[in-house]
Predict the 3D structure of the following.
Amino acid sequence: MLIDTLIEDQRWNDANLHAFAQSGFEATAATLGLDQNFEVSVLGCNDARIAALNADFRGKAMPTNVLSWPSEDLAATVPGAAPRLPGAGSTELGDIAISYDICAREAQAQDKLFEHHVTHLLVHGLLHLLGYDHETDEDAALMETFERRILAKLGIEDPYL
């Protein structure tokens, strides 16, 4: 598995963003039964940068915790159905951006370990790259079920409790 980590905010180096991504992505691949021969780019940034990205790509000029851009649309056409798996030749899944500032605020406000919250958000972003979403109640239930399973493998409590 290749994770290309680009650090724009030094705090991500100090926190070891790459290690969070590695463990979360490996657990996701194992849980979903995926071949781990894929690539993901992760941008560790701050609120200002992610707000600009959010404005550019989603028309929302505000910071958010994580954004994702899939290389291929793998989403299911039926609500609640599993997305299709990436093809054998598809190795580049897409890009994820994550903001240190908002992650730190959310972790503190929710009384969670920072590393657990970040790992959850990275898994969440990777699931988006793999075609999972939370646009309908059925889709959200499926995505959250996998998030819980993946995080449990890592010893991280259910983030939705």
Observations:
- The mean pLDDT is 95.
- The longest strand covers residues 92-99.
- Strands lie at 2-7, 39-45, 66-70, 92-99.
